[in-house]
Each structure stands twice: as structure tokens, then as C-alpha cells.
Sequence to fold (339 residues):
Amino acid sequence: MKPYTTLLLIPTGIGACIGGFAGDALPIARTLAAAVERLITHPNVLNGASLFWPMGNVLYVEGYGLDQFCAGRWHLRPVRQNRVGVVLDAGIPADLQQRQLHVIQAAQATLGLDVGPWRITSQPLGISLSHSPSGASQGSLAHPDALLEAAQDLLNSGAEAIAVVARFPDNLDFSQYEQGVGVDPLAGVEAILSHLVVRQLRIPCAHAPAFYAETDPKPVHPRAAAEEVGFTFLPSVLAGLSYAPQFVPHPAQPGDIQAKQVDSVIAPATAFGGPGMLHLASRSKPPLLIAVRDNTTVMRVHPGQLGIPYVEVSSYLEAIGAIVAHRAGVSLPSVWPQR
Fold:
């Protein structure tokens, strides 16, 4: 029997009550990983800045690659270890750049990761931030060609995954985010950076922003605290990319993971409009789709509006219970008689 496979989706930059902060969905992933044989999720679920948690049955898959996987265009090929190349934005000052190099050295010496080489972009990436009318995080970069040039150079030099460290403005307003509400203002641009590299080079990629640490630390909400405990956000990115599966086109080889092998999907109840979810829902035999009501977002795309068959639950604990029943072959109405 094939391994029971669950996809945990919490889109970035939409103010998810759980998963919209620094690795605050990691406890959900840890619990879910104990209930299934194989869990697929994306970096913003697993990245906690300097904090991360290794799980042997969890696949770390960037969002654009995840959409291609769900569409059946790409398969996922598990790896033992990737060599992770690092792109540093030329806009990062020398002292802040040195902080990133410390992480590279520490990841090699302490965690045994294969990190390197690293490259500085030919010019600053020029990050700018904004919000959509719905309140979702978005933005742009002035020089995408500089990012792709550096990433391609790393790929040519033997890198198998790419970590991008981009310089962000220091005058951003994090006041709401730091108190555990609102939308992460960085998330939209972070997605643009990683999507660009994955789309063009078909290689695992994730992003870590570069900021100066607070000179006068202040109390923050626990969900935002992971971003206050170190000088960089790079450690969790390097750890995740070190085991991120490779993207491979047709035909699949033995051991490759295909979209048709996904048994269940869990997502916020208001965030069912993503390409990956729609591709899976349109299959002749879709996986079990579970909508979590309590994980509110700024989006308003409910599966009921789309005519998608789904099961709605109130919490992730209830969702995990539904997964256990589904995996055991137990009819869900039999354990939810009132429904």
C-alpha cells in the first residue's frame, strides 16, 4: 500500500491566523507528521527564522513548485542532501552581509550541511512592498535579472538548491504584526523571489530577508518572537533547502512522488482559490479536502463558493482527527454522526 500523503497548505502573505507568522504553523506540521506517512508543505510553514525542526517524513516544497506538482506537470524526487547555494543581494551592507556568512559557516560546521558557493548579485535587487485591495502582502523587485544571473551562476557551479537573502527597507511598519495581528508585509515579495527562481531554473528555492537587529528589543507576541531571537533569518532556510525534493518533469521514475498520490489536503477555509488546490480539486478522483474554519485569513475564497467537495472542521486538531479516520478507512460521517 502506498504511503498515506497529506498536503498542508497555508498560503503566505494573506494574514493567516495560524501560519501567517514566523514558523507558527510548525507545531501543526509536527503533529500532522506524526499522523501520516508523508507530509508535503511549503517553507513558510516550516521556517521559523533561527528555529526549525527536522522531520524525516516532511517534504519542503516552494509554492510555485507546489502548484506545478499539483497540476501534474512536475514530480517530487526526494533527496538525501542538497548542496545549497546562497544569493546575497548587493544592497546588503557589508556588516549585515557578514552575519549571513556566519550562518553559512555555522550551518556547515554545526549542522553538517553542504552549503556553498555563494554569490553577490551584480546590482541591488531593489525590493519594494505594497498591499493588494484585499490586504494581502505584495510587492516587486527592480532587477529580477540580477537575481536570475546569480542563481544561474550558482546552478552552473554545482548548487542543487538556492537560498536568496534580499535586503528589505528598515523603515517598515511591523507594529501590528509584532502584536500577533495583521499581514506579514514581507511575504508577498518573498514569494515573488522564490517563484521567479523556481519557475526559470526549476530548482528548490527559499528566501530569507536581511534586516538590522533591533538595538532596543521590545516585547512582541509569541507568534512573532522567532524573528527576534537571532541576527538573520537564514538558518531555517538552509536547513529546509538541504532536504528539499528536486522538481522533475515527466516521465516519473520509481520513487518520485506524483500529485495523484496525494490522499488529503488541509487549508484555511477562506483560502481555497490557489492554483494548486484548484488543480487537485478538479481531478476525476480528488483527494479529501479539509477546510479549517478557525484559521481566518484576509482572503474570502471558500470551497463552497467554488462547488468543490470538502469537509469543514473548526480546528487543526479536528482536521488531524479527520485525517486519521480517512487513513484508517473510517467513513467520516460515522465519527461525525451529528453532521
Notes: Residues 83-242 form a domain with the Rossmann fold fold (CATH 3.40.50). The two ends are 30 Å apart (CA to CA). The chain has a mean pLDDT of 92. The chain has two domains: 5-78+247-335, 83-242.
